[in-house]
Write the structure tokens for this entry.
Amino acid sequence: MKPFYRLVNPVFEQKGIEYDTMEIPLSPRKQRSINLFQLFKIAIVFWQRTGVQLSTAIDAMLRFRDYLEEVQSIERSGGESVPTSLFNHHEPIQAVTLQDIKTLMFAYYDLYNKEGLSLYFDDLPYIWELLWEIVRKDFFSNKTCRFQCLFLYDNLDQTKSFQAKIDPYHQNTIVKVWLENEDSIERYDAGWLDMISVNCTFNEYFDYCRYYWEGKESKCPNWEYLYVGKYKLGNIGDK
């Protein structure tokens, strides 16, 4: 059987016990992504409609109180567009429609008043998983949901590199994972995810997502495995 590895929090998953991916609780990162779905959806719609960079769409939402008076002044004077320099001086697109920015601002404000939801700059890393899931659900519904699976590597060095990237203090543990059914594994190149930045446009993002779910290889491949089913954890040196 081919060896697989992953990072685990030993408080929630212990070695030698059989687990089922459908029964284990969501990680804090995944849960936060789901909780922020309604907020991110507002920014994503604005991002797609206007063609601006992702960073501009997020800044337009997070900083709307800073430029609210300017938008009101533009509306009173009969203007139909808002300069993007109000919220991002590095945006190539010079202006967006007044209606688009009003829709963004009012939707965010209404959601805050009704449910107390708000977005902060520290929440930006959570948007990536949500974006990936939106494309999967809409165009690749037969593929494994990243919110309901294990993320595995078949290379120990790659797992260590991943730990150094997201867990520099080694609070989590690298373990070997024994799978009940290897036929339930799907292999994708996370290199496409690594290529996305806050400066990308919606079309660029969508292409990278599509390439990922199609199983294509990027220029800097970073292969990961998605698994749904029963499994056990063991020591790295176990055979």
Remarks:
- Residues 37-118 form one domain.
- The CA atoms of residues 12 and 55 lie 35 Å apart.
